[in-house]
Design brief:
The structure is a single chain. The chain folds into 3 domains: about 5-90, Nucleic acid-binding proteins (OB fold (Dihydrolipoamide Acetyltransferase, E2P)); about 100-260, P-loop containing nucleotide triphosphate hydrolases (Rossmann fold, 3-Layer(aba) Sandwich); about 270-350, Ribonucleotide Reductase Protein R1, domain 1 (Orthogonal Bundle). Helices cover about 35% and strands about 20% of the residues. It is built from 11 helices and 13 strands. A 6-stranded mixed beta sheet has the order 10-9-8-11-13-12. A hairpin with a 7-residue loop joins strand 6 (about 100) and strand 7. Helix 4 (about 130-145) packs across helix 8 (about 270-275).
Length: about 350
């Protein structure tokens, strides 16, 4: 397989000119995409198929933060052995886009969800899971990571049509401009429209709470029951869903990533995504008297005036302030952490100099 043919095959797995311009490979190097991660063991895919790979010791020594390690959707540079042997990963190709959330607990570390995603589909169930504030949090991080957002409302067969219409109207009233699709996994109404959105060679990541129908949907897209799913409870909530992230190539050429359900979606450094996710507030802010208006009490604040007049809902305004405060706290925490890391680095260097003297 010559170089041009090889890169054409890679493009079918999501490789792009953007990645090409930022990647150097030696004569012994190969490129592969991460399909699943199990600690330091990876399932990767290239034009020849899927195989196992592990991380080189030097790579692990240089990259100690969890977000620096390969995640689903990453491209990696590795050495391939004989068929059946494990590949050895030496580095991760720069990520064009990424999805992450705050790690569990008090830490402000990033927990990677997926990389090199073209479109992130935020899935909520019309029946029990619909939550506008949670939807806003997802969309903020999608925009911050650079992916194109889309909203999918599932289980429409479990509610009356007017409920679905009301939820659509609530989304639009909140200033959310992302496409909104609806789907019944039972009747498959809406499935054809979703299929038309899935572009060959592009990566689509499905995120949302547990039991909203993500894995059942991907099973339908694949055309076989290959992902671990279960039945539906009496409330309409799925009982058993995906237990790990996995990248799958559909028959039509699109790539999809299923994710375990996420009830919490903490923000980490998302100021750009917040600005893009609250377009109506950003537009109003252009009319504020002060350029650096915080929209919390300054005279001549167009945002506060819109809240008072009813043009902007108080719930949307309060959600904006809450997400902004959470993002600012995360950013300050990261700055403090970097400051401590630099101070520790200076201490280590001074100790080394003392030992050398």
């Amino acid at each position: 397989m010559d170089g041009e043919q090889r890169h054409e095959e890679l493009r079918r797995l999501g490789w792009s000119e953007w990645h090409e311009a930022r990647t150097e490979c030696g004569p012994e190097d190969a490129l592969a995409r991460v399909a699943a991660v199990d600690r330091e063991a990876l399932l990767v895919m290239d034009p020849t198929g899927t195989f196992r790979a592990t991380l080189a010791g030097r790579f692990l020594h240089r990259h100690t933060e969890s977000h620096e390690l390969p995640c689903v959707g990453d491209w990696v540079v590795l050495q391939k052995g004989a068929p059946g042997d494990w590949g050895l990963v030496h580095r991760v190709v720069e990520r064009r886009t990424s999805l992450w959330r705050k790690s569990a607990g008090a830490s402000m570390q990033r927990q990677m969800i997926a990389a090199n995603v073209d479109r992130a589909v935020v899935v909520q169930s019309c029946h029990y899971d619909f939550n506008l504030r949670r939807l806003e949090r997802y969309l903020v991080m999608v925009r911050e990571g650079g992916a194109e957002p889309c909203v999918l409302l599932t289980k429409t067969d479990l509610v009356a049509p007017e409920v679905v219409d009301a939820q659509r109207a609530e989304i639009r009233a909140a200033g959310i401009e992302a496409p909104v699709l609806t789907l019944s996994n039972v009747t498959q109404e809406g499935l054809d429209e979703l299929r038309r959105m899935l572009v060959p060679g592009q990566t689509h990541c499905f995120v949302g709470g547990s039991g909203v129908g993500k894995s059942t949907l991907i099973n339908q897209l694949i055309g076989r029951d290959c992902l671990q799913t279960g039945g539906v409870s009496g409330t309409g909530e799925g009982r058993h869903t995906t237990v790990r992230r996995e990248l799958v190539v559909l028959e039509g050429g699109a790539l999809v990533i299923d994710n375990p359900g996420m009830r919490e979606f903490g923000l980490v450094e998302a100021s750009g995504g917040i600005g893009g996710g609250f377009g109506s507030i950003a537009e109003l802010a252009t009319g504020c008297r002060y350029r650096d208006c915080s929209h919390t009490g300054e005279p001549g604040c167009a945002v506060l005036a819109a809240v008072e007049s009813g043009e902007l809902s108080r719930a949307q305004y309060e959600s904006f302030l809450k997400l902004r405060a959470e993002s600012e706290f995360a950013e300050m925490s990261q700055v403090e952490r970097r400051r401590k890391d630099r101070a520790f680095g200076r201490l280590v260097r001074s100790v080394k100099r003392g030992l050398d003297d």
